[in-house]
Structure formats: structure tokens, C-alpha cells
Amino acid sequence: MGNKKNEIQWKETPKGKIFFQLLLPLLAEFFTTFLHTFWGSMAGIPSTPTHFSALNRTVTTQEWAADYLLSGLVPAMQAGFAVWMLIVGFFKICVVHFNPAISVGFLVSGDLSFKLFLPYVIMQCMGAIFAAFIAQTLRGEMLVPFYISDDANIPAIFFCEVITTGIIIFYTLAMVVDKSYDQATGPLAIGMTVFQGILAGKWIGAGCLNPARWFGPAVMAGGKAWNYHWVLWVADCVGAAIFAVFYMSFFAPADRVWVMKI
Amino acid sequence: MGNKKNEIQWKETPKGKIFFQLLLPLLAEFFTTFLHTFWGSMAGIPSTPTHFSALNRTVTTQEWAADYLLSGLVPAMQAGFAVWMLIVGFFKICVVHFNPAISVGFLVSGDLSFKLFLPYVIMQCMGAIFAAFIAQTLRGEMLVPFYISDDANIPAIFFCEVITTGIIIFYTLAMVVDKSYDQATGPLAIGMTVFQGILAGKWIGAGCLNPARWFGPAVMAGGKAWNYHWVLWVADCVGAAIFAVFYMSFFAPADRVWVMKI
Amino acid sequence: MGNKKNEIQWKETPKGKIFFQLLLPLLAEFFTTFLHTFWGSMAGIPSTPTHFSALNRTVTTQEWAADYLLSGLVPAMQAGFAVWMLIVGFFKICVVHFNPAISVGFLVSGDLSFKLFLPYVIMQCMGAIFAAFIAQTLRGEMLVPFYISDDANIPAIFFCEVITTGIIIFYTLAMVVDKSYDQATGPLAIGMTVFQGILAGKWIGAGCLNPARWFGPAVMAGGKAWNYHWVLWVADCVGAAIFAVFYMSFFAPADRVWVMKI
Amino acid sequence: MGNKKNEIQWKETPKGKIFFQLLLPLLAEFFTTFLHTFWGSMAGIPSTPTHFSALNRTVTTQEWAADYLLSGLVPAMQAGFAVWMLIVGFFKICVVHFNPAISVGFLVSGDLSFKLFLPYVIMQCMGAIFAAFIAQTLRGEMLVPFYISDDANIPAIFFCEVITTGIIIFYTLAMVVDKSYDQATGPLAIGMTVFQGILAGKWIGAGCLNPARWFGPAVMAGGKAWNYHWVLWVADCVGAAIFAVFYMSFFAPADRVWVMKI
């Protein structure tokens, strides 16, 4: 540690720049999306429980509660906490996206360069595939992917994803674009936009919010897992772009807000 | 960004003042109440489960637990987290109320001018109506409004709302009026006054705490949703006024506390 | 507000001293213990569910889960959050105890004068009684007090209360005695010692942790609610004293730790 | 308190050094591991519920939900909160490990000297044994240990423990090695790595994450509690070492990261 000054200067050498500005962020995208998908895939219930619509009888309060706990409250808490944990765990390492929709949002706000967009998304998908592979191997059973049935209301899922994913990006930009942001519970609030988004999407079959995280399980499960999978990618990225434009237009700090530049 | 100084000066131009002091806060009221109502309406269970009083038998522990989870714990966590998230998400944009009772509290403390009160409440109601419309369209079924039955104990609901909504305003003022307030978990504590308020109101049919948030679903549902709806508005605003006076009289910082001015 | 300087000087006048050093803390004790007891009494389930021991058959997983949710998880979250909320809500007003055991702890550490101890405990009990009266009136049914049955294992309850209540005091002193304490989630951790204490006491019938908060419902319910009620007072205050001595002896900051003064 | 200067100098005397650099940290290891094991052992359900695999019929949604609540969600919240609480409660006293795997991680990063490693682990085990003894005495029934059945998938448990325990160490180092770390919710995120780890391990029988915490109940229960117990020790310490090397190699701050030293 005697040569600390040398090492910080190292950051400015050609090799240091490649590591800290390219390799480390890409490795972090891979690792954070791996963790997100690993935690989620390991915690998921082993198989989809009976669908109430097939029961042909009145559903009891107890059945509603059991279903809401397993496919609403617990996944929402698990994923919501995970997003916040990844933000604060890597806070001093680099800005981590672990979600193509977040990358789209940073593209719009100008905080991510175009040439890094594709490498980021590729590392996210690879991390998710690797996590799904490990999770499926450890559990010894097929993972349950984000499955959209043939009779699902696709426009409703699309618009719900646009709004709920868009809000994640709105919150992320509000705390990253505004350099004066100083609320200690801010990163937890970003995570809990996922909590709210999963509860909001539950009853209509939406609540993906991150296409890369669900790309991994889809690759492992195959077949019907690809049913309308593209809808998740399009809806989440379109929602990210719309809400990023909305934030930058009216809510960004005075020196960057677009409405002032007209 | 080279003209940053110019843009900050822009804030002081006539057009800048109109945007930052009037249009932005009103847009934020609309958007935050939209989010609050959207998240809540999307997460709510599709239909009211069987009422235990109609069962004519001993209610089992499992039925109590299922009911408490669906109509107590989950709505309390969902709404409590939402209130905190709206506070910290818009922290650097502007002070957001998204609740007519909060606006009443700020009127009493002198932190909101009288001429802005009505525009604020109108934007809140419009945001809630728009959210309820979107949620009902996406879900394709009638939203469950805040329903007060004909045989409800109206005085009990009224006084419970006065206390629980009043505490929200007490907490809000304690953290906004006192400029030296510095606890990082303070905004989360404001949100959790809603968590406590919903659990407190559950067994007697109270727990509204925000008349604008429930005005939207009432407009969409119509009919019996308007049953005693005015009680929620009166109780919540009266509670806000009482607890704002209570806070300002005894608990405000030494330079503003009313007991010192007599 | 032009006479702000005058008003701060007012704090040093005889009338100002009486208000800020005596009346305000006593009012705060009354109000915080009122809130604690009100929230808890309103959220409690209406009646004790069937005791499993009376069932004379194997208890199913679903029955365990329902019981744990109603009498473990939800009360623990409700009370744990409430304690943290009262600390941060009144952070800039004055140090609030709302628990005789905390007052005992501050007596031991020297942060509460002997002559204020009794007035504090009286205000706590009055706040709890008033809250229990309001809650019972609003709900229109008997509150469920902290009931110790005749066949309870009193020594086990006693020692469990000593440890779990003692830890609350240990945490409180660690954050109040050490003036350099700076963790933003510290007050939430104090609150969650109650969460852990209620879960720890659940299976053996302990988990009171605050005799004043349960004194109110006992006054309203009467009769068997007084069964061994004194055990709660003795155990919680003894636990507070033991853990306060333990903290001050070994864990207090270097300038106050007792082991250094021998 | 007039001799405060003397007492701080006392820290540098031979006796003061022994207390603050050796006895206090060892006492803190004993006490924190005691608390962790005590809270966990007291909160656990009294006996293992029926295993679904023995039911020979389709498991209902309600049974899944009850099982997940009792053996997934509640233990994960209880232990996750406990870890965070121990970190922030002892924040100004000394760095507490209360987990042999954390001690291994600090060995790798160079933040714990080799000669302190064994004393730390011994104090951790003694704290856990004492807590298990107290908990078993208070509850008057056998504690449920971390039981690995003979037909368990040992390699899956091993690798799951390596990853989930490793992530705890990764998070701990990211917040301790990097002296500029400043996120207020960071310690809570460390705790929630345990929340995620328990949910991740639930379905395959993993989720120990701390061999000392489960050593205590194993000593008290004996017999089949020792089944594959060594796997937990080896997997958790190996995972800690691997992820500590991973963190130090690529993610540590520029002046300590190993990749820069090649």
C-alpha cells in the first residue's frame, strides 16, 4: 500500500482505462444479472400451482391468500430487495444496470454511450443464462419461466409493462441524473418500484420488468417459454424510453430539463 | 450544459417561475396521485372474499389469517411503501402531497398558500380518476372501491380516520416544518404511518387515510361506492387540521411553536 | 419569525425551561405511549383463535402457518415498526421512552434523573390506558390483553423477558450513550429488537417487552388480564437494569465504560 | 467524565490494549453469536411439519404457501434482519463477525490476523452453544437443528452454500475494504444477502450460511443433527474464500485490487 499513488495513476494508463472503463463494468453487468436471476430462480416455487379458473367453483379466501403469498407478495419482496441490494452492493464499484430497460433509459438521458449498449445487454443475457443453468442443475428440475399463455390479454400485459417498467426508469434517473440527490433510502425505493410492479402485474399476467432476467430461464426451459417473449422485450424497452423522455422533459434538474431548452 | 448558469437564471424569469413554481408542482400532484392509485388498484384482490359474518359458524384460525393477509397486511405494506416511495422519488423535484389531508395540514402550518389548495386537490382527484380508469381497463373488471356498508359504525370510522390520518400529518409536519430534521429513515416512517393506519382501521372498516386516492375508484365503480364517501373526506381533513394544530401548538421547533407566542 | 432569536432565548427563561425540560417531555411520553398502544390494540385480531393444544389431533402445516402469521409475524412487524417510528418521528422534539424498561435503562446509565422516573412511568401508563379506552370504544368489543394462563411456565417467561427486553435497552444505550453513533438504520434496528423479541417469546407465551403498553389493555379488560401481570413489570425492569449494567461495564465508549474506572 | 483525556490515553496503556484489542472483540463475538442463535432458536417452529413427499397426493396451493411461510419467508426475514441488526448495533463497539465464514473472508482480504482466527471461531461456537442451551431450556423441548437427511443431494447443497455464503462475504468486503463506502442501507443489504440465501437454499435443503450459528443447536440436539454437519463448515468457508479472492481480484478499490498488482 506504499505505492498507492502509483496505483491511482495506473487508472489513467492505457491498461487501467481498459479495465476500469470497459472490462470491470461488463464483468459487473454479468455478475449482477447472474445474482438477480440466481436468487430469483432458486427462490421460485417448484411448479405452478393449480389455476383457479380450472376449479369450476367459488375460490375461498384461503386459496386467494395462499396464491397471493406465493405468486405475489414473496416474489415482489424477493425481487424488490434484490434490485436495491445490487445497487448498494456495487455502489462504489461502478453503476450497474442488470436490466436492458435501464440501459435504454440511460441511453435516452445521455448517461450511456451508444457503443456500450449492445455489449451491456449481451453481458446481462449471458449472466442470466448462466444463472438459470446453475439454478436448474442445483434444483434438478425445470425452472418455471415467465410464461404468457395463448389466451392472455397481450395489450393489457404490454401497457402494464410499459407503465411499471417505465416507473423503474423514472426513479433511477431521478436519483442518478440529479447529482444533488441525497436520500439514503433512495436506492431501496428504486428496488421497491419492482415490488409495486410485480403486485400491479400479478392479476393480469404481467410483472416481468426485466427481460434479461427472464431470458435466462426461457433459454433453459425452451418451448412454450418463448410464447410472446418478445412482448416483454419490446414493452419494457418502450416503457423505459417513454418514461425517460417524460422525466428529462419535465422533472430533470433545471440545468438539464428539456422543457427549458426549447 | 455549457450554459448551465443561464438555465439556473432562467428559473427566475417570468416563464421559469410559472413552470417551477406552478406547473411542475401541479403536474407532480397529478402524477404522484396517479401512481399511488394505479399501484393500489392494480394490486387489490379481484373481488371481495366471503364475509365471515355470513358464515354462521366459528371462523377458523386459517380463515382469519387468510383474511388478514389479503385485506390487512398486504394492502398496508403496499400503500405504506408507496407513500414513502413517492416522497423520496420526488424529493429533489418538489414537495408532493398526493393527499388532500396533507394539503390541509400544510395550510394550517402555513407551508401552502390558500390559492394553491384547490388546484392541488383538483390535480390529485384527476390523477386518481385517470389511474382508476387505466387500472379498470387493464384488468377488465370492476375495481373494488373503499366501500362503507349501510350497517357500518360511522362514528367509529370517523374517529378512527381522524386519529390515523391525523398522525400522518403530524409526522409529515415534524419532518418538513423542522428544517433541522435529519433522520434518513424519516420518509419511510411517514409511509409506515399508513401501514399502521390501515391495520388499525381494518377491523372496523376504516383505513382510507387519503380521500383522493379512493375518489378515483369510486368514480369508476359508481353506485354504492358513494355510500358515505363524504365521511372519508370530512374525517381525513378534520383529522389533518386537528393534528396540525396539535403539532404546531406544542411540538414545532422553538422558533415556530405556537405555545411560545401566547 | 423576525423574533427568532428572542424565542430561542425564551428557552432559557423560567417559563421556557419548564415547558421544554418538563412539560414537553411528559406530554411526549403520554402521546407516544398512546400511539404505541392505540396502533397495537386496533391491529390485534378480535379474539384468541382456538388453542391447538385443545385439538387432540396432529396440527397441520397450514394451521401452524396461520397461527404464526396472526400471533407472530404480524404483531412483531406492527410493534417493531411502531417503536422505530416513534423514535424517528419525535427525534427532534425530545428523547422519548414510551416504555418503563427504557426509563430504567436510562436511570442506570445516568441519562435520566431519579426525580423524573416516576412522572415518566405515570405518563406512559396514562397514555396506554387512554389508548386502550379509545380502541375498545371504537372496536365495540373487549380488547385481548397480554394474557398469562395459570399453567404457563412462569420462570421461562420471566427469563425470556429479561433477555429480550434487556436487548432493547442494550441497543438503545449503544445509540444514545455513544454520541458518535452515526448509522442511519440504527433506530430501525432498535425497533426490530422488538420484532425479534416477539418472535422469540411467541412459543412460550412471552413477548411483552413493554409493561406500560400492556397495562392499558389490562385496565380495560380487567379480571384474568391481571394474572401474573406483575411478572411482566418485574422481568422487563430487571432485564433492563442487567443489560444496562452489562453495556456500561464493557461496551460503552472509552470515556464512560465502567471497566476502565476500576 | 472530567478525566476523559486520561481514559482515552488508557486505551494505549498495556491493560487498555489488551481490553480494547483482544478481550472486547472476543466478548463481542461471543455475545453477537449468542444473540443470533438465541433469536433464531426461539423463533423456530416447534417441530418439523409433515414432509410433502410423504403425502402421496397432489400438494395444494395452500400447503405450499403454509410451508413457504414457515420454512422460507419467516426464517429468511428473521435471520436477515438479525445479521443487519448485529452489524449496526455493535457498529461503534468493534467489527463483529459472528460467522466463521466472515472470519475466513477477512483472513483472505488481510483484515484479520491469523492468530486471532481460531479464538474468534471458538468464541462464536461457544456463544452459539450457550444460546442453544438457554433456548432449549426455556422452550422445554428439543430444538430443530439444521438437519441434512441421508437422501439429500449433497453436491447441490455444497455448491448452493458456496455461492450464497460467498455473496455474504462479497457484500461484507465491498463495504468494509472500501473505506469510502457511504450507503446508509449497506448493512441492511448485507443482512438481506442472508434473506436471499435462505430463500435460495430452501427447496434443496441448503441455506445454513453460518456454521457456528447451527453448531449450537447441533450440540444440544446431538444424534442425527451431526449428519453431514461438516459439509456446512467446509462449503461455507470454501465459498467465503473463493468470493473473497474474486472480490479482491477485480472489485476492490484501485489501491488494493489484485488485478492491478500483477
Explain the overall architecture.
Four copies of one chain form a homotetramer. By secondary structure, chain A is an all-alpha fold. Chain A has one domain: Up-down Bundle (Glycerol uptake facilitator protein), CATH 1.20.1080. Chain A is 67% helix and 0% strand. The first copy, chain A, contains nine helices and no strands. In chain A, helix 2 runs antiparallel to helix 3, helix 2 crosses helix 8 and helix 3 runs antiparallel to helix 7. The first copy, chain A, is globular. The first copy, chain A, starts with a helix and ends in an 11-residue tail after the last helix. Chains in contact: A-B, A-D, B-C, C-D. At the A-B interface, helix 3, helix 6 and helix 7 of A face helix 1, helix 2, helix 3 and helix 5 of B.
